C-alpha cells in the first residue's frame, strides 16, 4: 500500500480519496475549506493536513482534483518545495495542456514524475469508483500510477506525452456538447410535434441515434430535472479551455462554440448548477 496525498475534496475528489482509503492506502487529505476535509476524515480512515506543503511531505503519490488552471497553479506552487525525487504527481483537474506541460517540466527538474489525468464519469462514476481517466506523460509513470488510480478508475488510457490527457478531455467535451444539443433538439421537436416521447425514444434508441446521454438523460430532461451530474458552470470552464486550445492548434469547432453560447444562455436563466442536459430547458423557455 502507498502513502498518498489527495488535494481537493469536491464532488469528485471526496469519493476518489475515499476509495483510496478503502483500498488500504495511507491517505492524507487537504481541502481549501477545511470543514470538508474534516468531514471526509469523519467517514474515512486518513489524516487532514493543515496546508498543501505539509500534505505531500513524504508522499509517494500526490493527487490533485481542483477547479481550474489558477487553482492548480496556486496549490502546486505551495506544495512544490516538498516535491521530492521519485514522487508521482497526478493532476485529475480538467485544466489546460500548457499548464500540464509546465508542471511536468517542474516535476522533472526535481527528479519527480507528473501525469495530467483528467477524469470523466461525473459524481456517479466517482461514487462507484468507475471513472474514465485520460493520461498524458511518460509511459513508465503511467504504469507506476495505474494501481493507485485503479482505486477509483475503471478505464485508464495513456494518450501520449504531457498535455495529451488534457487534450483528450477536450475531445470528450466537444463530443458531449454536440450530442446533448442534438438530443435536446430531438426531444424538443418530439414534444412540439405532439408525439409520445417515450415511444419515440424506444423506437430510435436501438439504432444509430442511441447514446449514453439518450439512455440516461432523456426522461429527466423531459421532466425538467437537471440535478444529475456535471454542472453547466464546469462545462463552460472546460469548453473555454477547449476553444482556447483550438485557437492555438487551428482546429475549427463551430458547433462547440455555438453550444458554449447556449450554455451561457442557461447560466443567464439561473442554471449555473444544473447539469449539462439542461440545454432542453433553454429550448423550452
From TrEMBL:
It comes from Hyphomonas adhaerens MHS-3. Keywords: NAD, Oxidoreductase. The keyword Aminoacyl-tRNA synthetase does not apply. One of its GO terms (molecular function) is oxidoreductase activity. The active site is at 169. This is 3-hydroxyisobutyrate dehydrogenase. It holds the Pfam family NAD_binding_2. Belongs to the HIBADH-related family. Residues 5-160 form the 6-phosphogluconate dehydrogenase NADP-binding domain. Residues 163-281 form the 3-hydroxyisobutyrate dehydrogenase-like NAD-binding domain. GO terms for biological process: organic acid catabolic process. InterPro entries: 3-OH-isobutyrate_DH-rel_CS (IPR002204), 6-PGluconate_DH-like_C_sf (IPR008927), 6PGD_dom2 (IPR013328), 6PGDH_NADP-bd (IPR006115), HIBADH-like_NADP-bd (IPR029154), HIBADH-related (IPR015815), NAD(P)-bd_dom_sf (IPR036291).
Amino acid at each position: 500500500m502507498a502513502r498518498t496525498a489527495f488535494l481537493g475534496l469536491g464532488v469528485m475528489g471526496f469519493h476518489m480519496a475515499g476509495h483510496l482509503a478503502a483500498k488500504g492506502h495511507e491517505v492524507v487529505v487537504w481541502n481549501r475549506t477545511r470543514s470538508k476535509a474534516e468531514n471526509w476524515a469523519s467517514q474515512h480512515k486518513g489524516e487532514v493536513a493543515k496546508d498543501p506543503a505539509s500534505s505531500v511531505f513524504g508522499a509517494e503519490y500526490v493527487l490533485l482534483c481542483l477547479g481550474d488552471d489558477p487553482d492548480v497553479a496556486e496549490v502546486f506552487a505551495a506544495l512544490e518545495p516538498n516535491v521530492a525525487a521519485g514522487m508521482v504527481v497526478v493532476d485529475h483537474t480538467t485544466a489546460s495542456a500548457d499548464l500540464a506541460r509546465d508542471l511536468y517540466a517542474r516535476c522533472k527538474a526535481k527528479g519527480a514524475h507528473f501525469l495530467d489525468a483528467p477524469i470523466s464519469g461525473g459524481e456517479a462514476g466517482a461514487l462507484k469508483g468507475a471513472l474514465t481517466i485520460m493520461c498524458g506523460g511518460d509511459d513508465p509513470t503511467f504504469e507506476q500510477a495505474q494501481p493507485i488510480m485503479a482505486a477509483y478508475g475503471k478505464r485508464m488510457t495513456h494518450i501520449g506525452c504531457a498535455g495529451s490527457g488534457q487534450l483528450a478531455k477536450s475531445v470528450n467535451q466537444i463530443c458531449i456538447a454536440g450530442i446533448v444539443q442534438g438530443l435536446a433538439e430531438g426531444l424538443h421537436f418530439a414534444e412540439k410535434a405532439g408525439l409520445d416521447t417515450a415511444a419515440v425514444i424506444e423506437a430510435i434508441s436501438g439504432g444509430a441515434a442511441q447514446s449514453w446521454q439518450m439512455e440516461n438523460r432523456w426522461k429527466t430532461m423531459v421532466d425538467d430535472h437537471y440535478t444529475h451530474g456535471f454542472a453547466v458552470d464546469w462545462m463552460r470552464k472546460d469548453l473555454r479551455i477547449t476553444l482556447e486550445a483550438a485557437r492555438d492548434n487551428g482546429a475549427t469547432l463551430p458547433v462547440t462554440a455555438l453550444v458554449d453560447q447556449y450554455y451561457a444562455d442557461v447560466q443567464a436563466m439561473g442554471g449555473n448548477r444544473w447539469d449539462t442536459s439542461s440545454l432542453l430547458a433553454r429550448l423550452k423557455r
